Automatic annotation (TrEMBL):
It comes from the Eukaryota. Keywords: Isomerase, Rotamase. It is an enzyme of class 5 (isomerase). PANTHER family: 39 KDA FK506-BINDING NUCLEAR PROTEIN, FKBP-TYPE PEPTIDYL-PROLYL CIS-TRANS ISOMERASE FKPA. This is peptidylprolyl isomerase.
Length: 224
């Protein structure tokens, strides 16, 4: 079994909210993506305390698109990814936007459409649909919604994903792309994402900084 502890994360949309959220998601053409990718496919969970969750899933029946083989890529691939992910940060420090909470990001593609100035930026309470590729700082990919072809959807401000991802989305407009540099305390913190069998290691080691390449597919206000 895999023991996934998501500090500050809570469950997916409550059932009572799905009917109201459906319209927002259906318009974007991804009505099936109600849950953050981290929670998709998990068969059971229980809250361990208000600030976290204790999630378990069978290693024999992993979440869709998430497997130990897929998440733990080879050393060669990691080295290539590392040069791309970390190289941009080192080469263009002037392009980094640094937030007070410790998160920093680069705008990789801005919304430059004719109505860009009028387009709303994501704020707390909005429903967002997001594509991302998530890396460890050595370049290893541990989650990839783009490869699965299934962007994730959640409501901002409801702790339905890690704090760093949510913080990095604030102000983003539909079509915008950012690279987020997430400190460990805004990611999976001291717990990481580890197998219950310690000999199998961790998908995300404890106290690991993360990098997310994020595309905001759609953003809309809460229908409630």
């Amino acid at each position: 079994h895999i023991n996934l502890d998501f500090t500050s994360a809570t469950s997916c949309f409550p059932t009572t909210m799905l009917s109201k959220a459906f319209l927002v998601l259906a318009i974007a053409g991804v009505a099936e993506a109600f849950c953050p990718s981290h929670l998709a496919g998990l068969t059971s969970f229980k809250a361990s305390r208000p600030s976290g969750m204790n999630l378990r899933m069978s290693a024999e029946t992993p979440a869709p698109g998430i497997s130990r083989r897929g998440l733990l890529s080879g050393a060669t691939a990691a080295a290539v990814l590392s040069s791309g992910v970390m190289g941009a940060n080192a080469a263009d420090p002037k392009d980094l936007v640094r937030l007070e909470n410790g998160l920093s990001y680069q705008v990789k593609k801005a919304n430059t459409g004719p109505l860009a100035a009028l387009a709303p930026g994501a704020v707390e309470g909005d429903f967002v649909i997001v594509d991302y590729i998530a890396y460890l700082r050595d370049g290893t990919i541990f989650d990839n919604t783009v490869k699965r072809g299934k962007p994730v959807a959640f409501q901002m401000g409801k702790k339905q994903t890690i704090p760093g991802l949510e913080s990095g989305l604030l102000g983003m407009k539909a079509g915008e792309q950012r690279r987020l540099f997430v400190p460990a305390r805004l990611g999976y913190g001291e717990r990481g994402v580890c197998f219950e069998d310690a000999s199998k290691g961790c998908l995300v080691p404890a106290n690991t900084d993360l990098v997310y390449d994020v595309t905001l597919v759609s953003v809309g206000p809460s229908p409630i």
